[in-house]
Amino acid sequence: MNNSLISKEAFGFLKDLANNNTKDWFNANKSTFKKHEADVKSFYENLKERLNDHDEIEKIKMFRIYRDVRFSKDKTPYKAHFAGSFSRLGARLRGGYYLHLKPGGTFIATGFWDPNKEDLFRIRKEFEMDATDFRKIIEDKNFKAIWGELQGDGVKTAPKGFDKEHQNIDLIKRKQFIFVRNFSDKEALSKDFIDDVDKSFQAIRPYFDLMSDILTTNLNGESLLD
């Protein structure tokens, strides 16, 4: 099945699950869950095909409905949403895509959620040297119309070795470099949703291209992949 729609019934199931988040209820409705899960997976596969028309996607990771409650105060056993991520191919293509489906809380996200220590240092050194190209991309009016402002956590003061008075300290202090776009239920359930998601992910490409270039070269612009 090549599904390009998220069904009202799938959202209805997630609402019921949120209101009946117990093992007994879930087990009694597991066959319904499996049907909706299969349809949603088909939607993600369809989206992957579209992404591959303008990018190179290595794999999809669909997240399990079961929650790990060992270290959580919330002991409800199931997630009342569907979610999955798309990994880009190879070391030269950095960044990734994420789609979260939830009644009243559907969103897409993209960027760099948890860069490793080496990548984070390389990004900060780039901003220390020059952030002109980066700011030009994220401040572009067409880009901002889709993705809004750069989001993500940061440190409260300058990282070790960086000047707290640097002109780009607002960027240097960041630990995450992500963008999020929210959708209403009406938008998520419309026939245009998959097109809107795909176009949004296409619009992030200048950002990915620049970040990939930064993360695969040294400060002299020499490739680190050879």
Automatic annotation (TrEMBL):
InterPro entries xref list: CHP02453, UCP028451
Q: Which Pfam families match?
A: DUF2461 (PF09365)
Record's PANTHER family?
A: CHROMOSOME 12, WHOLE GENOME SHOTGUN SEQUENCE (PTHR36452), DUF2461 DOMAIN-CONTAINING PROTEIN (PTHR36452:SF1)
This protein's name: DUF2461 domain-containing protein
Protein source organism: Flagellimonas spongiicola
